[in-house]
């Protein structure tokens, strides 16, 4: 066989190797790498979601009342105690049975000095108060401030 | 009849330079193609094994949905602990020029804390400065100013979001 023919056969073999093996494998490799990247992105997002969920669960656990106070009467007692300590006048307290997982729904309305009201809201928000805020409203009327807190009372789970 | 003997010979022609070069190039092309094919196959095998491992990763399995009552309550619990009213109001006060005051504030707790404010300012410029301060602050975002009365005293509603940890 002449050297020219051998060279031609080798060139054909090279073309077959490149077009039939290397090129398809490279295409599939690119697809596999893209899938790995996508799976890693999904895993990172899922991990972040799980961490955020854990933080929320921990916060709920920290906020929860101890079992002996986790009742409508227990919640009312705690709020009245906090209000008495704040020495604010014109207060309304409304504690009703809540739908699980809340022990009670709570509405506290009180008027007074701005700084005292903010301090009261802070005490109600503290872990161990059992309250999880839904809505807090501060309004100014005739020179006085009013505070309304709508919250859920939560117990141990 | 006489026998004729042929003593002529055809000279054996050696491979020309062009043929040798073509042969060399073709051999090199085979070597390169084989190396590329081998490497691509090996990389593909590794990548496919990594894909299988990633697919089996337990972290990718779906977690139970959080959009239930307990999930919402847990989100509100975190927002309450990270963004109690005192902290939000202190952060707001730090951005308020002296002649701006809050007439009303509603804090709605959820995944984040949404604020609905009613603001009064003695001068247009003070209100503008307050809005600029809010925009520059990493703790407040999604600021939506409402209809404002200008020309002296300004009163205006304002909706915005509080980010306890600063901008994401």
SSE inventory with pairings:
The complex is a heterodimer of chains A (157) and B (168).
Chain A: H1 3-63, H2 72-86, E1 92-97, E2 102-112, H3 114-125, E3 131-141, E4 144-154
Antiparallel strand pairs in A: 1-2, 2-4, 3-4
Helix pairs in contact in A: 2-3
Chain B: H1 17-56, H2 69-82, H3 85-95, E1 100-109, E2 113-121, H4 124-136, E3 140-145, E4 154-162
Summary of the model, kept short:
The complex is a heterodimer of chains A (157) and B (168). Helices cover 56% and strands 25% of the residues of chain A.
Any descriptors?
heterodimer, A: 157 residues, alpha+beta, Alpha-Beta Plaits, 2 domains, four-stranded antiparallel sheet, 3 helices, 4 strands, 25% strand, rod-shaped, B: 168 residues, Gyrase A, domain 2, elongated
Report on this model:
With 157 residues, chain A is an alpha+beta fold. Chain A has two domains: 1-63; 67-154, Alpha-Beta Plaits. Chain A has three helices and four strands, in the order ααββαββ. In chain A, strand 1 (92-97) and strand 2 form a beta hairpin. Chain B has 168 residues and is an alpha+beta fold. Chain B has two domains: 17-58; 69-162, 2-Layer Sandwich (Gyrase A, domain 2), CATH 3.30.1360.100. Chain B has helices at residues 17-56, 69-82, 85-95, 124-136; strands at 100-109, 113-121, 140-145, 154-162. In chain B, a hairpin with a 3-residue loop joins strand 1 (100-109) and strand 2 (113-121). The chains are: A alpha+beta (157), B alpha+beta (168). Strand 3 of chain A pairs antiparallel with strand 1 (100-109) of chain B, so a sheet runs across the interface.
* Tally of DSSP β-strands of chain B: 4
Major sheet details of chain B: 4 strands, antiparallel
By secondary-structure content and strand pairing, the structural class of chain B works out as alpha+beta
The parts of chain B where pLDDT drops under 50 for at least 5 residues are none
Briefly note the CATH topology name of the largest domain in chain A. Answer: Alpha-Beta Plaits
Number of helical regions of chain B: 4
**How are the strands ordered across the major sheet of chain B?**
1-2-4-3
- The Rg value of chain A, from CA coordinates, equals 33 Å
- Annotated CATH topology of the largest domain in chain B: Gyrase A, domain 2
The CATH C-level class name of the largest domain in chain B: Alpha Beta
Strand residues, percent of chain A: 15-25%
Mean pLDDT of chain A comes to 89
User: Tell me, what's the shape of chain B?
Assistant: elongated
Unreliable stretches of chain A, pLDDT < 50, 5 or more residues?
A: none
């Amino acid at each position: 066989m002449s050297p020219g023919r051998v060279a031609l056969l080798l060139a054909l073999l090279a073309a077959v190797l490149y077009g039939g093996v290397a090129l398809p494998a490279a295409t599939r490799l690119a697809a596999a790498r893209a899938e790995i990247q996508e799976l890693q992105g999904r895993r990172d997002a899922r991990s972040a979601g799980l961490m955020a969920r854990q933080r929320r669960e921990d916060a709920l656990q920290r906020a929860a009342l101890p079992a002996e106070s986790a009742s409508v009467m227990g919640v009312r007692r705690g709020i009245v105690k906090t209000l008495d300590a704040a020495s604010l006048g014109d207060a309304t307290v409304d504690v009703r049975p809540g739908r699980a997982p809340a022990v009670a729904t709570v509405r506290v309305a009180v008027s007074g000095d701005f700084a005292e009201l903010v301090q009261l809201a802070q005490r109600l928000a503290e872990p161990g108060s059992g309250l999880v805020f839904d809505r807090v409203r501060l309004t100014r009327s005739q020179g006085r401030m009013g505070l309304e807190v709508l919250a859920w009372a939560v117990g141990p789970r | 009849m006489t026998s004729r003997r042929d003593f002529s010979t055809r000279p054996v022609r050696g491979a020309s330079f062009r043929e040798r070069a073509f042969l060399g190039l073709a051999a090199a092309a085979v070597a390169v193609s084989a190396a590329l094919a081998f490497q691509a196959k090996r990389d593909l095998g590794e990548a496919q094994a990594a894909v299988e491992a990633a697919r089996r990763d337990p972290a990718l399995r779906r977690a139970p949905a959080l959009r239930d009552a307990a999930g919402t309550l847990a989100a509100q619990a975190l927002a309450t602990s990270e963004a109690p009213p005192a902290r939000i109001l202190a952060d707001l006060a730090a951005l308020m020029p002296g002649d701006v005051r809050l007439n009303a504030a509603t804090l709605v707790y959820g995944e984040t804390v949404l604020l609905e404010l009613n603001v009064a300012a003695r001068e247009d410029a003070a209100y503008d400065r307050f809005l600029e301060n809010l925009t520059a602050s990493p703790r407040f975002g999604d600021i939506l100013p409402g209809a404002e009365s200008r020309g002296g005293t300004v009163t205006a509603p304002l909706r915005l979001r509080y980010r306890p940890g600063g901008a994401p």
